[in-house]
Amino acid sequence: MLKELNVEVDQSTWPSSGSPAFPSTFVAGTSVEQIDVLGLLALLGFLTTPTTALGMSLSEHWAWVRYFNAISDENKLKITPGFAQLDPHQKTILSDDFGMAVPMYWLAQKLQLEAVCDGFYYAQRFADIFNVAVTGHGQRGPRKTADFVCVDVQNRWHVIECKGTQTSDAARERQFQHQTQTGQASGAIVQKRTIVFPPASAGQRLAAGLVVAIEGTRRQSSLKVVDPQVRPRKRSAVLQIDEKQFAEAQDPIVRAMTARALIAVGLPTAGTALASPNAFVEMPGRRDESTRRRSRRDEIVRTRDEIARRELIEAENDVSGTRTHEGVRFRARTQTINMPSPTRFDEKRIAKVRITSRLNMDVLRFVRERGFTEEPIVPKEQPILGVHSQLSLQRSGTATAIRFGSLFNVEVAVSRRRRF
């Protein structure tokens, strides 16, 4: 279930000397890459699962429910005409989702990534750890925090801003760089600079944009990756991390990865409590809060954390939900989706999709024993969570699994029959 994708890497946008250097795993110019569709949609489901489940969420399965029929049967990565004719709002959502998933799928392998965290949550948690105000960060415009903060197997920290469009290459260039109505520079090349790591640990700062082509047209889908260097404006960085803060500043990415894994295996309250230990997501803005508001916060945390602890204890004692996979005990959750009618996929008729999420039981036990304290998860604790291992894909017949080290894995399988 592989699709071809044109990838353009513009090496001329990297600095001619100094950092960051052009990655040795990148090929300058245009190349044709293979994209595993099952792996792509599994990654999309994981990345779009919120770090806090403030209510019932099907986000981890949304990619399959929504986009299974969106991908063309051609050997090139394209979308079907039906999805190309959606109303503008729905088309924008599709473009944004694919514009995030496809670049991260490619970059995860090329940069040997081991953990990923959305930039907005990273900035929120950083502010909470150090009790500082991260001023001006938002979800739009030049002060929008970058889409993703990532760490690779060599402990280099990367900042990625992703874009997606169904319109044209020119539209992608405008997403990369344009000016606001006030004449301020905006777009991906500005947004990728909103989070800055110490020089000794900093990796790439990339803008990656996808143009999605439509089945039956001559145009091909293409991913473009650049690292344009712009003269930074005063206070252009929303978040500037120094060496003294760096150990604690690794906490948000570990919490985000583990929280998403907990939510994916059916432990939403535990995932939320880990990601938002003092309810800073539910009730942002702790600085100078009133006694009444503080009392309300304490009540939310107390009630939520008690439910989270019960979730974890029940999960550890639930023999029916525990599986041994490749010699490791996992908390497993399987979701089966029956297609409303037989669907063509990769020149085959598919009747059913099965998604299996597995969380290492050692991680579950560690979270329960550590509790939902505000104290940052420091580097010496992180190996216990199994985060530090390269994200990898494993294909087997009609199934693809994405492995996030020994922490978590998700497998997507398809069947031509109503039963697996």
> How many structural domains are formed by the residues?
2
**How much of the sequence is in beta strands?**
25-35%
Task: Please give the number of β-strands.
Answer: 17
Strand order of the largest sheet: 2-1-10-9-5-4-3
How would you describe this structure to a colleague?
It is a single chain. The chain is of the alpha+beta class. It has two domains: 2-245, no CATH class; 253-415, no CATH class. It has twelve helices and 17 strands. The strands form four sheets. Strands 2-1-10-9-5-4-3 form a seven-stranded mixed beta sheet, sandwiched between helices. The longest helix is centred in the C-terminal third of the chain and has 27 residues, at 291-317. The protein is globular and about 60 Å long. The mean pLDDT is 85.
List descriptors.
single chain; about 30% helix; 2 domains; seven-stranded mixed sheet; alpha+beta; about 425 residues
Could you give the topology of this structure?
Blueprint lengths: L1 E8 L19 E8 H11 L11 H9 L13 H4 L3 H23 L2 E6 H12 L17 E5 L4 E9 L3 H8 L1 E2 L5 E2 L1 H4 L3 E2 L5 E10 L10 E5 L12 E2 L10 H14 L3 H8 L15 H27 L4 E4 L2 E18 L2 E13 H10 L11 H4 L5 E6 L2 E6 L3 E8 L5
Parallel strand pairs: 1-10, 5-9, 8-11
Antiparallel strand pairs: 1-2, 3-4, 4-5, 6-7, 9-10, 12-13, 13-14, 14-17, 15-16, 16-17
Helix pairs in contact: 1-2, 1-4, 5-8, 8-9, 9-10, 10-11
